[in-house]
Each structure stands twice: as C-alpha cells, then as structure tokens.
Amino acid sequence: xxxxxxxxxxxxxxxxxxxxxxxxxxxxxxxxxxxxxxxxxxxxxxxxxxxxxxxxxxxxxxxxxxxxxxxxxxxxxxxxxxxxxxxxxxxxxxxxxxxxxxxxxxxxxxxxxxxxxxxxxxxxxxxxxxxxxxxxxxxxxxxxxxxxxxxxxxxxxxxxxxxxxxxxxxxxxxxxxxxxxxxxxxxxxxxxxxxxxxxxxxxxxxxxxxxxxxxxxxxxxxxxxxxxxxxxxxxxxxxxxxxxxxxxxxxxxxxxxxxxxxxxxxxxxxxxxxxxxxxxxxxxxxxxxxxxxxxxxxxxxxxxxxxxxxxxxxxxxxxxxxxxxxxxxxxxxxxxxxxxxxxxxxxxx
Amino acid sequence: xxxxxxxxxxxxxxxxxxxxxxxxxxxxxxxxxxxxxxxxxxxxxxxxxxxxxxxxxxxxxxxxxxxxxxxxxxxxxxxxxxxxxxxxxxxxxxxxxxxxxxxxxxxxxxxxxxxxxxxxxxxxxxxxxxxxxxxxxxxxxxxxxxxxxxxxxxxxxxxxxxxxxxxxxxxxxxxxxxxxxxxxxxxxxxxxxxxxxxxxxxxxxxxxxxxxxxxxxxxxxxxxxxxxxxxxxxxxxxxxxxxxxxxxxxxxxxxxxxxxxxxxxxxxxxxxxxxxxxxxxxxxxxxxxxxxxxxxxxxxxxxxxxxxxxxxxxxxxxxxxxxxxxxxxxxxxxxxxxxxxxxxxxxxx
Lengths: 349, 349
Description:
2 copies of one chain form a homodimer.
Chain A: H1 29-43, H2 46-49, E1 55-57, E2 63-70, E3 76-77, E4 80-81, H3 82-96, E5 99-111, H4 116-133, E6 136-145, E7 153-163, E8 179-182, H5 188-198, H6 214-222, E9 227-232, H7 237-249, E10 252-256, H8 264-273, E11 286-290, H9 295-303, E12 312-318, E13 325-328, E14 334-337
Parallel strand pairs in A: 5-6, 10-13
Antiparallel strand pairs in A: 2-7, 3-4, 5-7, 8-11, 8-12, 9-11, 10-12, 13-14
C-alpha cells in the first residue's frame, strides 16, 4: 500500500469537546460566531469575508454550472473524506463539461451534536482540496438540524467554470466510430468507502482514487483533441456512465473487459462482496470519447498527467442498437452491460 | 385572512403509496427512472434533458453566485413550502447582490421512505416558483439516505445571476447618513412555520410572506437609485440583518420601531410565544440602504410592486459606535438591538 497514515473512525475524538448546537443555525449570534471562528478563517476568501448574501465573480465567457450533495458514510475514509469529495466531485463535473473550474459554493447541513472538531477537519479538507484544484470557495450557507435528523454532516457544493471546449461536449456530440478512453484503474473509491464503513479487514488498505481531473481534460482541449464527451465514473461506475451516454446518444458502445484496469486488491475485494467492478464508484476516473483519429494522441496526453497516468483506450462507439453497451470478456464473448440495479453501494459519495 | 386553501400536514397521503428507496440514490437504473419520471418532467428544461454532468449557461457579464440549503419543518406550511422557499430564497439572495437571477441548481437529499407524492409536490412547487421568478432550473443532483438519517427532504439550491448594479452593493458600500428602507411588514414567515409546526390554533391563519423580490430591486437599479446595500430578512430577522450590516460596515444604524409594520395577528402570535418580531424570519422582505437623496423616490418605486407595496423608510445609518443598532420605542427611548441569541426558531427555512 502507499500513502500516509490516516484515522479511520468517525466521529473523531474532539479536542475541546464542543459540539454543534441548534443555535449555530439560527441566523443569530451563535451562527455568526461559528462562521467567524470556524468557517471563514478556514476558507479564507475575500468574497466570503464580505459577509454578503452571495459572491460576485467573473466568468468571462460561457459558464458551466453544476451541483452535487455529498452524504458519504463514513465521513472520513482512506484516501479522502467528505470535504475532499465535495470539492473534487463538483470540480470534476465542471471538467466533464469541458470547462475550467473556477468557483464553488458550499452548503453545510450539520446535525446537532456533531463535534466541532469534525467540522473543522472537514472544512480544512475542503480548503486544501480547493487549493489543489485551483478553485475558490466564494459563498456558502450553514444549517443545523436536530439530533437524529441528519447523519453528522451533509455537504452540497455547486460550481461554476468557464467553458473552454470549442464545441459542445456531451452525449449528444458522440458519433459512431468514436474511440472510448478510460483514464485509469477503476473501483478504488467504492471499495475504500465500503471497507471503512464495514470495517472489512482486507490485507491491504484500499485508498480512494478521489482526485481533481480538470488538468488532463484541459490539456486535451488545449491540444485540439476532438473531445466529444466526457463523463466521470461516480455512482453506478463505468457501466452506468456508459449506458447513460449510449442511451442519450442513441448509439451503442462496445468495450474490451481485459483492457479495463482493476487493481488486484480491488478485484479481490469486489469478488468477496459479490460486486462487479464496472458498477463500483470512482472519484478520479472518467471516460473521454474522442474522434478516432485523435485516440493515440489523447491517450499520450492523459498519461502525461499523474491523475490519468493509467489511461487506456477500451472500446468504441457503434451505430446501434441504441443504448446498448457490450463488453467483450476474456473468452471473446460479448455480454450486455446494464446500469447498476438495486442498492449495492448506498451513500458512496 | 387571504389566499387559497392549503393542506397543513406532512407527509401527505400518497396517491400510489410509492416511497423513496435507497436504490433511487444509487446512480443506477432506479435513479435514472426517478429522474426520468419525476424530476426532469417537472422541471422541463432543455439543459436538464441533456443528461450531462452540468449545464452550460450564458451570464453575459459579472455574475452573482449564492447558495442556501433548506431544512424547514414542516415541509408544507401556509403560504409556501420547501420548494417555494428553495427557489425564492436563493433568487432573493441574488437580488440582494444587485443581480438579475438567471439560473438555479437543485440538490435533493431524500430520506428513504419519503412518499413520492411528497417529492412530486415539492418539485412542482419549485417549477412553479422558478417560472414566477423568471429563472431556469438547469442542473441538479439527487441523493438518498437511509431511514432516520434525514428528515424527509432537504433541498439545496445555488443560483447565478447577472450583476446589473453599476457599483458594488453590500455592507462595505454603506455610508453614514444613508437611509434605511424596509420593504414591508415583518414576521409572517416565521410565525406561519411555527404555527404549522406546533399546530397552534391562532384565530387567523398567518401565511408566509415567501415571494421573489428581484423585480422591485431591479426597478430601483434601473431607475438609477443609489442603492448601497440590500439584505433580505431571513433567519434572525430584521435585527440580525441590521446588526450584521452595521458590524461589517463599521457604522451604527438607528431606526424607529413605530415605523416597522407588523400585522396585528403576527404581533399577537409573537407576544404569545415570547418572540420579538424583529428576530422573526421573513422570506419576502428586505432592507434597502440608499443614498438619502433618493429615499422618497426609492420608497415610491418599491410601493409600485405588489411584493413591496408596504415599503417604508424606517431609519438611517450613523457614524458610530461601530456595529451598534438602536431602535427608538414608542416612548421615545432608544434601545440597543442585538442579533438573535439562542435557538428560538430552529429550522425556519
């Protein structure tokens, strides 16, 4: 295994024993104190310090706009936590729109009794993640609900980016014959969270792949690669993303299972839990669907970035049947791949 | 009382008995069906129908950006519900930035077991409110948490608007001598929610003032009124807003209690519950702090709009002491007004 040591449990032992109270959400003095002592100093942005109802920002062109709420359990897990997820998840959605991520909003829903140290740790993670991703946390909101009416901490982020793709990026732009590139190995985020939640004692600690992916995407676009669609492989995994693209585009998508990288420890954990790695969530992996003429160049560009060093072409887009995704197995037999059904991996992000 | 009849209770009786399941948040087939049958048809926006990770929008100038989460209990109350709140609350925050509201994102956190009819009703409210406010719901996210880990439904909205104010609007622009205008009577939203939550049998039904206020704000700006600061009077009420402005501006603010409109039924309900109307939340009221030369014109403009027909000048900004807000009572005695302390009115929005 690699990476630093990290604490596994949540809630954390608190330094001062202070916890979130209902008054912290009341819009009065206690809330002002929480914002002044915990939130604004952590995020440290001039727009937040204006203490106004919103931020004023410059986009300078067409804007990408996206949002996600984060309800992951546990709040902290190997390779990340709810704070890193909340920043990278939304930043990555902006990148998937062919945009350079610029600004984030943060909405916190706190459960009464949450240790303030847990909150401090989560907002510190958000700040660090925002710096790593080159975005500013410019506006926010904090609500408190009574004990038993939330699960410690829920986070919503919304994001704005500047669209840099010269043509629309999305399922509607996908063409038959396009090449399908996967940015790296799959399944780590889902397995890291499951292992932490269920206290599964795998031999190695699987760390989430949680990471910002805008840098390689922007390099693809700057290099003039004809990027038709981008999709990060979060809830529902590679399979659900591929099916949704195929259904929306009205085309078929075929890929080679042997070409999809899955680490041995992830594959073993999936087998143990009866999960298909194609359905397991990732937080730093994406599909890039590009013009076939650009595939080698695109893979080479992605491999130049650490976050997508494992990029590989895995398949192609075909005329039809519309919405069908197939995967060629090791014996050369095609199987139909569908979206995740049921609830194998709840609250994974 | 005025206004239509409305059901008071929540959760609602369901038509088909269907409820939210964990799989509705799993990123797979069940979630796709929920989005395709409940969410996208209700919001009916071309950007949502692209089924991509975000929306691409045009702002065409400096952008205002804001967010709020909504955890109001009960979900439905006289004069509004969590859906109307989630749209108007964020639209109003954009207006308070001197901006024309344009686009909203919606993040839903659903509790397992929530009747789908409750969700349908909330999203229908959001759609209607968005139409009334002239904004588009262009991107969203849905998460599900297990039974007992949320309280039915939490909603986050973030919003983008185009800044139309010619100069920065906010506490930093407030000057000594500025006039303080209140847009109408206060206390209705907080009392409406409290009455619905506690089943208080007041003689009249108090309806929330929940409404979009961008129209009068934009008219002020278009008319060239020197608007220095705008602030909607949500959590913490008029008192907390005034104190926060005074503290941030480093100035004092003085107003006349007799000039502040409070309906008789609201005043009676506040007295019964031991609440000061100055601390009670509103969802369609704001302060406009303007150059004193413009006060009469500003009040006249506001009165031309139904949502601010009760606008009145209530006081002025003074040199100091910094952060002090005072209120002159009926006997001519000034009292110091502070932010709400404690937790008188939890989960009011």
